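Margin note from the TA: students keep mixing up input and output lines. Inputs are the sequences; the output is the structure of the whole complex. Example:
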Amino acid sequence: MKRTLKNAWQSFTRNGWLSTATVLVMTLALFVIGGLMLVGVLSQVVIEELEGKIDIAVYFYPNSSEEDILNIKRNLEEAEWVKEVTYISQEKALEDFKERHKNDQVILGSLEELDGNPLEATLNIRALDPSKLADIADSIREKKYPIVDKINYFENQVVINKLSSIMASIRNTGLSVILVLAFIAVLVAFNTIRIAIWAAREEINIMRLVGASSWFIRGPFILQGVIQGIIAGTVSSLVFYPALWVLSPKLLVVIPGIDLFSYYKTNLPIFFGILAGTGIFLGVFSSFIAIRRHLRV
Amino acid sequence: MIFFDDVSKIYTPTQAALRNVTLRILPKEFLSIVGASGAGKTTLLKLLIAEERPSEGKIFLDGVEVTSLGYRDLPQVRRRIGTVFQDYKLLSGKTAYENVAFAMEAAGAKDSEIRDSVPEVLDLVGLVEKANNFPHELSGGEKQRVAIARALVNRPEVIMADEPTGNLDPVTSWEIIKLLVKINEMGTTVILATHNKEIVDDLGRRVVTLEGGKIIMDEEKGKYVI
């Protein structure tokens, strides 16, 4: 083991250029993979944000008793797929309305003209999965509560369905794009290592001819793969620091839901673990595969 | 003892590197294999360390059938035969010392044994001062002496040298041959493949002559005849 380590380190440092090039390519590949992971996180946040915005509102006739409405609320909260139900009373609705239109004298004036409160109490319902909103809306309609005026799902149905399908396709295509790109990155790194080992084929041949066993030859190469993986993993996770520091404020404007820089900082151990792990696996696996045919002497 | 039992190596139906070669090499012998380029000298040696496999026939090293061994068992045989190549085949990334030490490391020798033996053989080939030089810093003769040191260091029963003087000037060539003779006198079998007439004639040892893949002559105190 000591010998293997010595030989691995020796050939790693003495083949300075080749090692640097291999580590660089691997760093690049890991950087791409890490970037894809961040893109995945980002799109997850965007999707969740959009999903949070999709809800349905149940409107109640004025003069419905608050108790009845709260009864329905309790029933709904126990129903399947319901994530959250918020009650907005008539008074609250009026306040919100006034607040929203506080700069519009015409609207406020016409509101004064009316007797009493023209706005209706509502229950806002969010679902665990937006695609289930239709079922929830249907179930409310089927119960034929006498105090329910209307359910806005049926008015917004088209928009909600469209949003749901867009999000579903983002999820699926996004994932496949990420997988394809990651696969390409892995392939490039794999080929670089293959070339590096191909360059050493004469050495491998000599080692065999002077009586070295396959494992004695393979060991240092595989260990070099480990070293390359660790270095590339470290470098690529470090490179994300300045990259995100620059990028994050700009992204924050577009997607206010997440500060990537601080997200990265808190999750650094996980990122480092995944990147270094991928690097090591890539190095070991590629070396193992690439060296096999050269050992057949 | 090394025994080639009716060995043939056929590359294509019309082209055979060796045809029905039967050859017995005794311990402590100094055997020269001579012949023109393409006569089959190198193939014969490659077959002995199983770098190539014969098309027909068997090869034995002290009763072990080399030709039947798998990749896993070959290192054992190769450690018993020290090999010297025309193109030296040194590891370019390692110093002279490390090249010699590598053969011992590969054979699983202890660090203390390596520290003792490597300087010893480097001294034998006269390269102690160049121990820490890399191959590209050495002359052809020096490289070949490193290769011989590497072949020797595991104290093999057999040293086999394939055109060891092929790339060297006459004076250096003689030094290398003298070194091989000295090694032979210390009790190691030496198999020397060469097409250097003067060397063979001066040695006055057993000579096997190959032509077109066949042994056409095998003489106890032979001369280079072709």
